[in-house]
Structures are given as structure tokens and as C-alpha cells.
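User: Hey, quick favor. My workstation is busy. Could you predict this chain's structure for me?
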Amino acid sequence: MNFSFMTVSFPVDAETLREMKGLCEEAYKTDGVHYESILNLPNAQNYEASGFFVLVYNDEDNQLVGLASAIDLLGLNTYEWSIVVLPMYRQIGLGDAVYQVVREGLEVRGADGELALMMEGVVSGKAFLEKRGYVYSFSEATLEARAEKVETRDNVTIRPFKLTDTEALVDIFCEAFGDLQEEALELITFNSQTEGLVLWVAEENGTVVGTVTTRKEGDAHWVTALAVHPTYGGRGIGTELLNSVKQFAFSGGEQFVLLDVELDNNQALAVYQKAGFSKSAQVDYFAFGG
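Assistant: No problem, here it is.
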């Protein structure tokens, strides 16, 4: 049995994306796990995305039987990667071969850091990573809520970001996330200038007190970088930002609002649960050598 390996950069063409989705559908039949998110298929045709895919085809029928994705989400030369191989090919070492190509791709790009991703409950995937020296680091849950009409507060305004908001947002990210000023500026630049992302700010009585970033993906809106200045914590600003996204998604015809949160972030989990979000999936992150 012979295989062909290809390494391609983002974005991919429509036919390749169709093959990737087909592989995920086949893997789901056995594993009961949706792999599309950790393989970054929603970003596969994004010209702004930085990263690469490894494609493995069975030469006999030209079927895509293995797939890996590595993406530098924040432009910091740190990659998140994952591998999926169709079940019938897992016992012949195909996963090892794909892993080696991923490592070569990271080395060629001079990656400064990496994290390996695995969906919760995939025991064989966890064992695969641990065998190669990766250790569990943390987990993120994907939470979802229905897009819906929501009443908003009169004294809080949610609007798109303006350059004049930069200083206030730097202060918010530094205080809420512990970012350095340079890191906060990089995040603001990325979230305000990357195609498909929309950076929003929350004003309370004319003062910028919080922020959130959204992106449309199929029938859902994703939420990232939700932050409220600690001075204004406990006043429902975070819930108001989330409700505004629900309203925005509903107005655009989307069905869901989705977000990722680390499972040990109890304060954020409480805010999301209060806003009507519940867990739909979990991704476990593994670091090389701890």
C-alpha cells in the first residue's frame, strides 16, 4: 500500500476542503468526535491564516486518508497542531509518518513554540501524544448559546472599535489578562485588522469599559478576547457584551454563539453560564516535554 504526502499552506481550494470535511465525517463514524475545529477547517480558506496542512492520499484510489493542521493563530510563530487518520489506517503507522512531516514543517518555519490538540475522550490520540513526549497542559471547553433577541441596557452601548479606543483597550487587556502593553497592542491590531474579525467595545455612560471580538463561521458567531476592566467588574458588562453578540448573530440569521474557555477559569465560566452558555465540546492541549 503506497501513500502520497503533500504539505500545503493556507488557504486551500474548495475541492481540497471538501475532501478534508469528508475525512472528518468518516472519522466521526468511528470516534463520535467532530474534528473540524482542531483541524482548523473553518480557517482553511482564510488568506490571513498562517500555517499549513499535511495531506495523505492512498495512491490506489486517491482518497484522503490522513490529515494534519498546524496554525499560528496570533502571528507569534507559535503553532497549534493536530492529526487525524482514518481508523483503518491507524494500525500501520500512518500517524507516525504524518507526525514526522508536521515536525519537519514546524522546523522549516522556525516555530518558537507548539501545542498539540486532541478532542476529549480520544484515548488513542492521547496515548499517541504521550508516547512522543507530550504531556497534558490544560483544557478548553467550547460553550454554545442560541442566537436570540435580547433586551439591552440603556446605559451600556456596544459598538465597533475606533482607533481612538486603543489606549482604553490596552488598559483593559493589561488589567484583565495581565498582558504587557506590547502584547495588548498586538492583540488589538490582530483583532481589528484581520479579515473576518470584528472588534467591539462596550461603553458605560461614555467610558470604554469592556471589549469582545467576533467572527462569523457558518451558522454561528464565535466570541474571543472578552474582557472587562476590573474596575467595572461585577456590574454585568460581560453579560451585556455576550447578549449583544447573541442579538447581532440573531439579526444576521445565525443560530448559535460559540466561545472557548479554559476549564480552570472559574470566573469566566460563571459569566458564560449566567449568560446562558453550556458546554458542547472539549479540547485538551499537550505541550512537548512539559
